[in-house]
Specification:
With about 300 residues, the chain is of the alpha/beta class. α4 packs parallel to α5, α6 runs parallel beside α8 and α8 packs across α10. β5, α5 and β6 form a beta-alpha-beta unit. About 35% of the residues lie in helices and about 15% in strands. The chain has a single domain, classed as 3-Layer(aba) Sandwich (Rossmann fold), CATH 3.40.50. The strands form four sheets. Strands 3-2-1-4-5-6-11 form a seven-stranded parallel β-sheet, sandwiched between helices. The structure holds nicotinamide-adenine-dinucleotide (NAD). The site of nicotinamide-adenine-dinucleotide has 27 residues, from α1, β2, α4 and β5.
């Protein structure tokens, strides 16, 4: 099997690429930044998803489309680039795949498409009310996916990932930020009132879910990939402090300019994963275990630039 991964040099992408190679697949990566390792079955193409990539797709069986401008704050700062990469870039991936050997596209969407849910757990067909440019871009690209499924009979699965964490994630995200604080013996700063609920999902489970969908996902169906152990942001900070063994107390700093405005904060994000469970997948890494593994990884590797992504 030859698999194309866009964004294969990112946090999730590089972990996925390593897994695909370990499983004996041929992998081609398209990214604007070069992959940081070599492998006899790995090919790297330095291109943007906004470029003509039909030639790169001609000999591939399927595509994992991950390349994106990421995150709520970043997308607010770069709205046009977000719309270009996340919407035009995604449509370009669908468009270029037409008439090639590509039989399936798995597109990484986000829990941000749901906004503040009206019901929990959030099912795939729950209301979508994104509150960020990032969420809107991800949802818009999903709508194009359904259009391509209907219009051309393409097999595309939008997959909605929920707060992914694990080794190698860059320092713009809350788990590495809290870990770095704890490693520096500083109190983690918790924005808002700390009661925001999330379900943090370990990267190993995310890759397992993605591979299940690649192999068994029904044509045109969206799937949530998530852990379902709710944790508040305050509890997450406390857990990381506990794992560090240091005498620190997380600081609740309220809503301010460094984070989302209160009106745009998602207070309760708890997914349903029944749809993906029906394909035979379930998360294996409990939050306590995943955070401890991740903390120890950062402790060992902090400062090794080449091991960090995103
Ligand atoms: N990390 C999370 O918690 C999370 C949650 C929900 C959804 N997602 C989605 O998963 C995917 C991967 O996320 P990640 O955390 O690995 O992000 P990341 O930022 O680490 O990786 C994104 C990759 O895309 C590449 N890229 C950016 N613009 C590009 C372009 N124009 N052409 C080609 N490559 C380009 C970057 O160089 C980078 O290697 C994204 O689509 C993201 O929206 C991530």
């Amino acid at each position: 099997m030859k698999i194309l991964v866009t964004g294969g040099n990112g946090f999730i992408g590089h972990t996925l690429v390593r897994q695909l190679l370990n499983d004996g697949n041929q992998v081609k990566v398209i990214d604007i930044k070069p992959v940081k390792f070599t492998h006899p079955k790995l090919e790297f193409v330095k291109k943007s998803v906004l470029d003509d990539i039909r030639w790169e797709m001609r000999d591939c069986d399927m595509v994992y489309h991950l390349a994106a401008e990421l995150g709520v704050i970043n997308s607010d700062k770069k709205p046009l680039n977000t719309l270009a990469v996340n919407i035009d870039g995604t449509v370009n991936v669908f468009r270029c795949a037409l008439g090639t050997g590509v039989k399936k596209i798995v597109y990484t969407s986000s829990s941000e498409v749901y906004g503040e849910p009206r019901e929990v757990p959030i099912k795939e067909d729950s209301q979508k009310s994104p509150v960020s440019i990032y969420g809107v871009s991800k949802l818009t690209a999903e709508m194009y996916a359904y259009g391509y499924v209907k219009e051309y009979g393409m097999d595309i699965n939008p997959i909605r990932l929920f707060n992914v964490y694990g080794p190698g994630q860059g320092f713009e995200w809350v788990v590495p930020i809290f870990i770095q604080k704890a490693l520096n013996t500083e109190a983690p700063l918790v924005f808002g009132d700390g009661s925001q609920i999330r379900c943090f999902t370990n990267i190993a489970d995310v890759i397992g879910g993605m591979e299940t969908i690649r192999k068994k996902g029904a044509k045109g169906e969206a799937y949530n990939i998530a852990n379902t152990e709710p944790i508040t942001m305050r509890e997450l900070a406390e857990l990381i402090v506990k794992v560090s063994g240091k005498n620190l107390k997380p600081k609740i700093v309220g809503f301010g300019s460094e984070t989302r405005a209160k009106e745009r904060e998602i207070m309760k994000r708890i997914p349903s994963i029944e749809k993906l469970k029906a394909l035979g997948w379930k998360p294996k890494v409990r939050i306590e275990e995943g955070i401890e593994l991740t903390y120890n990884w950062y402790k060992e590797n902090l400062g090794k630039e080449e091991l960090f992504y995103g």
